[in-house]
Specification:
Keywords: Endonuclease, Hydrolase, Metal-binding, Nuclease, tRNA processing, Zinc. By secondary structure, the chain is of the alpha/beta class. Helix content is 27%, strand content 22%. Strand 7 and strand 8 (145-151) form a beta hairpin.
């Protein structure tokens, strides 16, 4: 199987990273997309993947940086002659999100205009996602994959459920954290995994700053805690991702982040700190994700 890190950034617009999106491709060519943040569809094309061939999407939670490319993905797939309804799995609220997007929502005019063309009328199902709101446990299983999820700790559950994911396919196990503070659920989902893809949004100093100032959520996993999770779960490989712009040199990002990040500390040098802190507890194979990074298992 092949894993393509389509987007490895966080909530702000980043000139170097798209937002959260991970594409898993089996040897038989079937695709499974986990999260669909800004840039996901464009990155598929850059990775030589036709968006119309991606029939499964799982949203870990409903923060904008994990879902905002979804309407573009669906409309683009329609225009690329996708057949059949796309399948979308996600937490409670996913159906509400989708119901306000397409022919009865924000893109009603676009749908009305394009569906007047005979070629678009042939695949209207492509604009009508099949939505399944999931609960902890096995949420999808067929002859190729088994996908299990559990709640992780990022947002208050009454605001939005947040899920971590375990995928079993082709004799391999891949776990993906979504966004989360350290939690037992993620250790269990990643148990003995061949690969753990886990958020590592901020260095230790940035998490402390956000907790102290009370600006934004700080319910993320620090590098030190990530190393502990990977070791406790006995994973065979670790990919750190969802970097919160702390490595950026963009003046625009620095101005935008001034109220919630210690911008005087920002820069690529912090990646060395990330690795050093992960290595305090984890000595196995480690990658720091970048957009379009390919991993073969």
């Amino acid at each position: 199987m092949k894993i393509t890190m389509l987007g490895t950034g966080a909530a702000l617009p980043d000139p170097d990273r798209a937002q959260s999106a991970i594409l898993l491709t089996l040897n038989n060519g079937r695709h499974y997309l986990f999260d669909c943040g800004e840039g996901a569809t464009r990155q598929m094309v850059r990775a030589n993947v036709d968006p119309a061939s991606v029939g499964f999407v799982f949203l870990t939670h409903l923060h904008h940086d994990h879902i905002c490319d979804y309407p573009y993905f669906v409309i683009s797939s329609w225009m690329l002659n996708k057949t059949g309804a796309p399948l979308l799995l996600g937490p409670k609220g996913t159906r509400h999100f989708v119901n306000h997007l397409f022919e009865h929502g924000a893109y009603h005019t676009d749908f009305q205009a394009r569906s007047a063309y005979p070629v678009r009328q042939q695949n209207l199902e492509a604009m009508r996602p099949e939505v399944l709101e999931v609960s902890p446990g096995v949420v999808f299983e067929d002859n190729d994959v088994k996908i299990s999820v559990d709640w992780v700790e990022h947002l208050p559950r009454e605001v939005c459920e947040c899920f971590g994911v375990r995928v079993e396919a082709e004799g391999k196990v891949i776990a993906f954290s979504g966004d989360t503070a350290p939690c037992e659920a993620m250790v269990n989902l990643a148990r003995d995994a061949d690969l753990l893809i886990h958020e590592c949004t901020f260095p230790e100093s940035f998490i402390a700053h956000r907790a102290k100032t009370g600006v934004g959520t700080y319910s993320h996993t620090s590098p030190t805690a990530l190393g502990e999770i990977a070791t406790r779960a006995n994973v065979k490989g670790l990919v750190a991702t969802h970097f919160g712009h702390f490595d950026s040199t963009s003046p625009v990002l620095k101005r935008a982040a001034a109220k919630h990040l210690p911008v005087d500390l920002m820069g690529p040098h912090l990646m060395d700190e990330i690795v050093a802190d992960i290595r305090k507890h984890y000595g196995g194979p480690l990658r720091l994700a970048h957009d379009l990074m390919r991993i073969d298992l």
